[in-house]
Every structure is written in structure tokens, then in C-alpha cells.
Amino acid sequence: EVQLVESGGGLVQPGGSLTLSCAASGFTFGNTAMSWVRQAPGKELEWVSTVYSDSRSKSYLASVKGRFTISRDNAENMVYLRMNSLKSEDTALYYCARGFALGTDRGQGTQVTVSS
Questions:
Q1: What stretches of the chain adopt beta strand conformation (E)?
Q2: Partners of residue 80 on adjacent β-strands
Q3: pLDDT given for residue 102 in this prediction
Q4: What pLDDT score does 68 carry?
């Protein structure tokens, strides 16, 4: 059974930073691209970032490029999203996803709220 468990969300002021973590199990993590997606209140699910299985290639939504960094640890079956210079428009429920784009499986999500 695929399991994806996100953590690390919270309330942060504009300009602040957070690091999200995702613990993965139930599939061959080291062979699988992993993504982060988010859903803001009243909006559709939105892809944020993807890291390929070997970490050599990473891609980002234009609005987060230069502020967010995706990474993974294949030894620990973990994927991370470091978020710097957070803006109010980054407020959303963030999901870890197996695969590309919106993923074939997602976790329960972790809430990120950017507000003063």
C-alpha cells in the first residue's frame, strides 16, 4: 500500500521560510519521480515542483522558482520542499505526490498559511 505522509506546515509571516517533509513507503521510492502539489482555498490543485528519481533533474512552477527547492533522500525514502521568501499567495494545503505532475497518489497534505 502506497503511503505518503507530509509534515512541516504551519503559520509563517510573509518573507519567512518553511521546510516540508514527506515520508514515503509502499513502492520503489528510488525509481520514482516525486512531486509537490498544492491547493489554495477555492482553487484547483496546482503542481509546484518535481524531482526525478536520481535528483539530477528538478522542475518548478514559475511563481516559486528561485524561492522553493525540492530535494530527496533515497536512503530514507524522504522528499522535501524548502520554501523561502514565502508570500500570502503560497497559502495552501501542500501534498506530496508520487510521480509527475499531480501524481498518481497523494498524501493527506500539510497546511501552509502565510500571514502577518
A1: 3-7, 10-12, 18-25, 34-39, 46-51, 58-60, 68-73, 78-83, 92-98, 105-106, 110-114
A2: 21, 71
A3: 87
A4: 98
Averaged pLDDT, 78-102: 96
- Spell out the residues 6+ positions from residue 98 whose beta carbon is closer than 8 angstroms to its own: 2, 4, 24, 27, 32, 34, 35, 104, 105, 106
Longest dimension (CA), the chain: 41
- Among 69, 63, 72, which Cα is nearest to 40's? 63
Q: Which three cell numbers stand for residue 35?
A: 512531486
Distance (Å) of CA 105 to CA 31, 35, 48, 51, 56: 15, 10, 15, 15, 22
Quote the distance between the C-alpha of residue 25 and its chain's center: 16
Q: What is the DSSP letter of 37?
A: E
> Is the pLDDT reported for residue 111 higher than 90?
yes
**pLDDT (tens digit, 9 = 90+) per residue, 2-43?**
999 999 999 999 999 999 999 999 999 999 999 999 999 999
Q: State the cell numbers at 70.
A: 525540492
